[in-house]
Design brief:
The model has no long low-confidence stretch (mean pLDDT 88). The chain is 55% helix and 13% strand. With 187 residues, it is of the alpha/beta class. A 5-stranded parallel β-sheet has the order 2-3-1-4-5. It has a single domain, classed as 3-Layer(aba) Sandwich (Rossmann fold). It has 8 helices and 5 strands. Helix 3 packs across helix 4 and helix 6 packs across helix 7.
Length: 187
């Protein structure tokens, strides 16, 4: 497949956006961008530090700027967005206009397994910033946040499960669905 439109990967933390995005960009021989990494680089601080020092609203404003800048870059590309980026209507409109939006999803328990030892997800840390949140608390946070975001995730052009599939099969699934979507959008 020759990539004619950008591919934007959205979904919850741990759904595989960065891992699959990097692999997909290599397979399609296009550039890869991770907006969380770009935000951290732009501000010169980690995502957790940005949330702690300046708050979520500040982070979301920088995130929108970074997304606009990435979309403007020449050439086809694969972009992994932060888990909450697609909450912004402005971002949804921009991405839908400029590429194919792929919602990567997996079960809550699969998300938990993938991120239970990650402490770089500020909205999933316990209230008292204790990095040793228990299993039930973290699953409850994932469930609540995913429930809030699900309505916007469902606005993606394509939906692909990343549960219990290897990377090769998931990439093939993404490529086939993006191609189908691209053909239907152009007709």
């Amino acid at each position: 497949m020759r990539l004619l439109r950008d591919i934007y990967l959205i979904g919850f933390s741990g759904s595989g956006k960065t891992t699959l995005g990097e692999a997909l960009s290599k397979r399609l021989k296009v550039k890869f961008y991770d907006t969380d990494r770009l935000v951290a680089r732009k501000v010169g601080r980690s995502i957790v530090e940005i949330f702690d020092d300046r708050g979520e609203a500040y982070f979301r404003n920088i995130e929108k700027q970074v997304i606009r800048d990435v979309v403007k870059k020449k050439g086809a590309k694969v972009v992994a967005l932060g888990g909450g980026a697609f909450e912004s209507e402005e971002t949804r409109i921009l991405l839908n206009k400029n590429g194919v939006v792929v919602f990567l999803w997996c079960s809550i328990l699969e998300i938990y397994k993938r991120i239970k030892y990650r402490f770089d997800r500020p909205l999933l840390l316990s209230e008292n910033k204790d990095k040793e949140s228990n299993r039930e608390e973290k699953i409850e946070r994932i469930t609540r946040l995913l429930g809030k975001r699900q309505v916007n995730y469902e606005k993606a052009d394509v939906r692909v499960s990343t549960s219990r599939k290897n990377i090769r099969l998931t990439l093939q699934d993404i490529i086939e669905r993006v191609e189908k979507c691209r053909l239907s959008k152009s007709s």
